[in-house]
Amino acid sequence: MKPGVRFPLEPLADYLGFELGVMGGQKPGDPPVGLTAMTGVLGLSSTTLKRYRNHGMTEEQADRCACRAGAHPAWIWPRLWRQSIHASLTAPVVPLGGLAPAVDRGRLVLVVAA
Fold this sequence. Notes:
Order of helices and strands: HHHHHHEE
Largest sheet: 2 strands, antiparallel
Strand content: 5-15%
Strand order of the largest sheet: 1-2
Shape: elongated
């Protein structure tokens, strides 16, 4: 993944059907909304979600959140996820144990050295 690329929280909130910035859920009996509702669905603290909203998420954090939401990150952040996959395929790889990775028509394949 490109350094500095972050996954925003808003598309995840949209996927889950929550509107961020909506007040509510503070009084007893109020249904949780916004970040408060997302804490229950994702199992994360409101502090963590506020940090994600302000600074975005890493690829690993976005993947973890998408899985907790029952989705694949490519469904939530299609363009950013494609960029992260492309960056990982074009990263330099060191051959290990006589196996060398290669890309053939967009597919990652292993080439065994003779």
